[in-house]
Amino acid sequence: MCGIVAYIGSKQALPILVNGLRRLEYRGYDSAGVALIENRSQSTESRNPEASIQCVRAVGKIDNLSEKLKGQSFDSTFGIAHTRWATHGGVTESNAHPHSDCSGKIILAHNGIIENYRELKEKLGSSHIYKSETDSEVLAHLIEFYYRGDLRKAVLEALAQVCGTYGLVVMHGDHPSLLVSARLGSPLVIGLGEQEYFVASDATPMLAYTKKVIFLEDGEVAEVSRENLHIVNLKDQNITKQTSQIEWDEASAQKQGFDHFMLKEIFDQPTVLQDAIRGRYKTEEGTAHLAGLNMTDAEMRSIKRVILIACGTASYAAMAGKYMFERLAGIPVEVDVASEFRYRDPIIDNQTLVFGISQSGETADTLAAIKEAKRKGAFVRGIVNVVGSTIARETDGGTYIHAGPELAVASTKAFTNMTAILLLYALQFGRLNKLSVATGQRLLAALAEIPEKMKLVLAQNEKIKELANKYKNNPNFLFLGRGVNFPVALEGSLKLKEITYIHSEAVAGGEMKHGPIALLSPMFPVFAIMTKNQLYDKMRSNIEEVKARKAPIILVATEGDLGAAELAQDVIFVPPTMEVLEPLLNTLPLQLFAYHTAVALGRDVDRPRNLAKSVTVE
Ligand code: M6R
């Protein structure tokens, strides 16, 4: 949560910083700010800092900051910027980052939580004047306390006193060519350009300038100038780092003509699904080949239990994965919400395989849970989208889902790609166990058809938009699904509530009569998935029960199911596929329905209230 971007080089910093913030806005958007050291101060070390450092902050989204910056001109090639998701201190301009010390010379932007900020404040005493209620500002004053002319040393001494997490960028008015950044628990990527450096919470702000990056690890501190990058650990010992190449391109992080990132990302799905599965299966052997798993066949055969750990949408992909694994591989699977897993006493041994599933690779609960699983001796692997992210690096192998940048807060293409990767894992394990070549081949052939079938579902966009307009004023929704479509119902419900603020619930079809049925009325529409699979008749009976209570029904049904129209007010047809693959198609109408409802209600689709894309706090 919170996004940081910093630039030091020869280009004008402000546009790079503001555009960078727009890319990171998914990380938080209640206020934003930018601080620049103006070029005229570069030759004179002792200029009046008030004349050389410019700091502009605004409450609300980046547009508000942009508006405030209009008409102001800065000549600066060095600056830092921040977009905030409030933890300590309300949403006010004074709580917005960057923050400064008493002198106004030390300026920082921080992502994370300084847990012992009260003790630190007490230690610093009453001589320090605070201008905000944030924990982050205390860190600026702590650096001031230790500063004796060497910024890196002061930052290191200050960090030695800190309990908590940080992704941090710091500059000082007396060092107009020096940026210090540090990481513990909040991601930072350093982009290496030509005589220029970028530091940001993820690589998207630098994609237009460089693909060469260094991922800062926990406990590392980088001292960055225009010409040089020097990385040390918290004991100030030098560290040599490898550079990595980012594969995402600039275009993939843009809306490409769509009104919102969410819509663009929904429409990305046929393409990125292919990216996820390409080169990862062997048609002749009817199996998948996910080399990153990093386990021998003997180790794979020793696995008696799989635990899938995730949060939010990723946990629903995990639930779909459970059906796939159990059906194809015959291995018992548990799905654990990461925040629960980490605080119970999970029973884990060296025959347990744990997957941490995360789009961002930075979700704090998922990260803590996989660390716990590792400590207990399980095989721990990742299914992650963001390359080089913390979960990707904390696990001993795994698979990138190759969904490309997902910038809308509501996760869409990550869901389908996670589900596809889980399917490939289920197939790979299944083929080592009892699954036949023929079944494996049939599954791969059906999977290969999914991208085209997704396009057929997406072609119904206009129809789904009409449905969204028809139902947008209902204050409640119930989503129903059974079997592999129960997680689809959960995901549809989450999508709807998080971007429209309409109350919705999802229930397994068979559970409805155990309580939720009491909710139903003509004002309580039910969105149900009733595709042709082994539970079709059961689901149909559930829908009959809904119909008898006069609740309006919207169905996702299989093409050619003429009976569906008799049952429901509205039907969205999807192409037939194998049952285990159904989530890859059936989720799409629900994503579009949530999207169009949110647009019809005038919601901020890509940046819904109170949320942030990457939940890096507990
Ligand atoms: O980055 P992650 O996949 O670990 O994120 C997990 C959840 O925070 C995320 O899926 C969240 O539920 C989304 N807002 C759902 O659209």
Task: Give an overview in words.
The structure is a single chain. This protein has 618 residues and is an alpha/beta fold. The protein folds into three domains: 3-246, Aminohydrolase, N-terminal nucleophile (Ntn) domain (Glutamine Phosphoribosylpyrophosphate, subunit 1, domain 1), CATH 3.60.20; 253-455, Glucose-6-phosphate isomerase like protein, domain 1 (Rossmann fold), CATH 3.40.50.10490; 460-611, Glucose-6-phosphate isomerase like protein, domain 1 (Rossmann fold). It has 20 helices and 26 strands. An eight-stranded antiparallel sheet has the order 3-2-4-1-10-9-11-14. α17 (486-500) links the parallel β22 (476-481) and β23 (503-508). α16 (461-471) packs across α20 and α17 packs parallel to α20. The longest helix has 22 residues, at 437-458. The chain is globular and about 75 Å long. The protein starts with a strand and ends in an 18-residue tail after the last helix. Mean pLDDT is 94; it is low at 41-51. Residues 296-445, 467-608 form the SIS domain. GO terms for molecular function: carbohydrate derivative binding; glutamine-fructose-6-phosphate transaminase (isomerizing) activity. One of its GO terms (biological process) is protein N-linked glycosylation. InterPro entries: GATase_2_dom, GFAT, GFAT_N, GlmS/AgaS_SIS, GlmS/FrlB_SIS, Ntn_hydrolases_N, SIS_dom, SIS_dom_sf. Residues 2-227 form the Glutamine amidotransferase type-2 domain.
Number of helices: 20
Number of strands: 26
What is the CATH topology assignment of the largest domain?
Answer: Glutamine Phosphoribosylpyrophosphate, subunit 1, domain 1
Number of domains: 3
The CATH superfamily label of the largest domain reads Aminohydrolase, N-terminal nucleophile (Ntn) domain
Give the ligands present.
Answer: 5-amino-5-deoxy-1-O-phosphono-D-mannitol
**Main sheet characteristics:** 8 strands, antiparallel
Which secondary-structure class do the elements indicate? alpha/beta
Task: Name the CATH architecture of the largest domain.
Answer: 4-Layer Sandwich
CATH class of the largest domain: Alpha Beta
Distance between the termini: 11 Å
Placed side by side, the strands forming the largest sheet appear as 3-2-4-1-10-9-11-14
The low-pLDDT segments are 41-51
User: How much helicity do the residues have?
Assistant: 25-40%
Mean pLDDT over the residues = 94
